[in-house]
Write a structure and sequence with these properties.
Elements: H1 3-18, H2 20-30, H3 36-67, H4 72-91, H5 102-106, H6 126-135, H7 138-147, H8 155-175, H9 177-220
Helix pairs in contact: 1-7, 1-8, 2-8, 2-9, 3-6, 3-7, 3-8, 4-7, 4-9
Length: about 220
């Protein structure tokens, strides 16, 4: 696989798994009532935390597998199973991740007054649940760990570039979350979720196929 193809595969996989558009209702709900400055600070912190977590697993994921005696094909198969479950939930519109913020994001009074005394300044959702597990969750962590070995020596830098790119795109989308949410509405968000779910399930099947290949060849030898 050449560099361009690998970057496209990694970026599209991360985009489908992280699902920036699908994160909009959660982000909008969890930051409802905050000022623009507070929202920006929360978003930047969440992006930095998620980048750090994904970078950690990009560079040391192989060592983690080695410590536990896990082969790459086994992790690919497991990752495919996880992806398939995520994609199936998206296709069937089942509740996923968490429900925090959904009702708030779609309520008639979406934004609480910024000076509302009930808003707790210490209630910071940037690290959890926004940074982990919404952006750097099981799906995205599995993605970087599975794809890194597939590009040999260039795997880690290329995956890191893709991670940076997708988080930059996600940050841009979430920065305009309220506007996008108002434009797309429930129907638009459901359509996006279905499309992302279909893409995730296809990636899941391909991961299982890639993982089973070496196993089948080993049994036939």
């Amino acid at each position: 696989m050449n560099t361009t193809a690998f970057l496209i595969l990694t970026f599209s996989s991360l985009f489908a798994v992280i699902d920036p558009l699908g994160c909009i209702p959660f982000y909008s709900g969890l930051t409802a009532g905050r000022t623009k400055r507070q929202k920006r600070r929360i978003l930047v912190k969440a992006l930095l935390v998620s980048f750090g977590v994904l970078a950690l697993f990009t560079f040391f994921g192989a060592q983690v597998l080695h410590v536990f005696g896990i082969t790459v094909p086994a992790f690919q198969i497991a990752g495919g199973v996880i992806f398939f479950g995520i994609g199936l939930d998206m296709l069937q519109s089942r509740p996923r991740r968490w429900r925090t913020g959904i009702s708030t994001a779609y309520a008639n009074d979406q934004q609480i007054a910024a000076d509302d005394p009930e808003i707790d300044e210490d209630d910071d959702p940037s690290v959890a649940p926004l940074g982990v597990p919404m952006l750097a969750g099981p799906g995205s962590i599995t993605t970087v760990m599975v794809l890194t070995p597939q590009a040999q020596s260039l795997g880690k830098p290329l995956v890191l570039i893709a991670v940076f790119g997708i988080l930059l795109l996600t940050g841009g989308i979430l920065a305009g979350a309220d506007v996008v949410l108002a434009r797309l509405g429930r129907t638009g968000m459901k359509i996006v979720e279905k499309l992302m779910g279909l893409l995730v399930t296809v990636i899941a099947v391909q991961l299982v196929i890639d993982g089973l290949g070496p196993v089948v060849r080993g049994l036939s030898d």
